[in-house]
Structure formats: C-alpha cells, structure tokens
C-alpha cells in the first residue's frame, strides 16, 4: 500500500505539524462542519465555534492520534483500537464522517504546507488518511 519512502514522508509531515496540532485539527473540523453540516450533530454538547477551547482540544486530539498512527503504520489497527471502540460503541459516530474528515484534513494540510505538500506527498497522505479512516470504521462491520 505505502512504500517505505511514503511512510517516512507521512511521519515527517506529522512530526512537523504536531506543535501546531490544535490549529491543524480545529481548522479541519471547521472545514468539515462547514462543508458537511450534518457532522455537527455529534458535537451538539460542545462549543465548536472558531478558536473555542472545545474545538481546539478535539482538533489537537485528532492530529495527535493521526501523528501517533503515522509512527508505525503497519500497527495502525493496534494503535487505533481504543479509538475504534470509543467511536463505534460509545459515541456511535457515523463511520462516513471519518472519510469526510480525512478529505477536510487533506485540504487543511495543503493550506498549511503550501508548496511542501507536493503531489507525491498529497498522494501518500491521501492513502494514509484513507487507511486511518478505514481502520476507525472497522468496528462497524
């Protein structure tokens, strides 16, 4: 699926972005909420306005989980097991939302990384985020 170089590139990108995890994650969430308003229903108990503590906190959690998974992509299922269980059984999130967030994350990365987000990096990240979303959705089968 991903070459050794692609895995390294993905990990390097997330290591670079971890210090600004709140901004990256909250931006991706805001894009998702604006583009797919139905996704907001899962956050009705939180303040998800721009720069709100809830939005920044959840955005950071998302980016840190993505970055953690990128450290060893071959172990993605093991790494994400607690999140699979949480999202499927407790939060009961529609698994389609993982794909929607992945797309919004790609757009966000393109904005933040600019010319560093080359077509090769984009393709590799798309493959990784698709795998990430698929692993999160596994418990729904």
Structure description:
By secondary structure, the chain is an all-alpha fold. The protein contains six helices and no strands. The longest helix is centred in the middle third of the chain and has 19 residues. The protein is globular. The two termini are 22 Å apart. The model has no long low-confidence stretch (mean pLDDT 87).
What distance separates the N and C termini?
Answer: 22 Å
Q: Give the C-alpha Rg.
A: 14 Å
Low-confidence stretches: none
Q: What composes the largest sheet?
A: none
Strand and helix map with partners:
Elements: H1 4-17, H2 21-35, H3 53-71, H4 76-90, H5 96-113, H6 119-137
Helix pairs in contact: 1-3, 1-6, 2-3, 2-5, 4-6, 5-6
What's this model, at a glance?
This protein has 141 residues and is mostly helical.
Question: What features would you highlight for this structure?
Answer:
141 residues; single chain
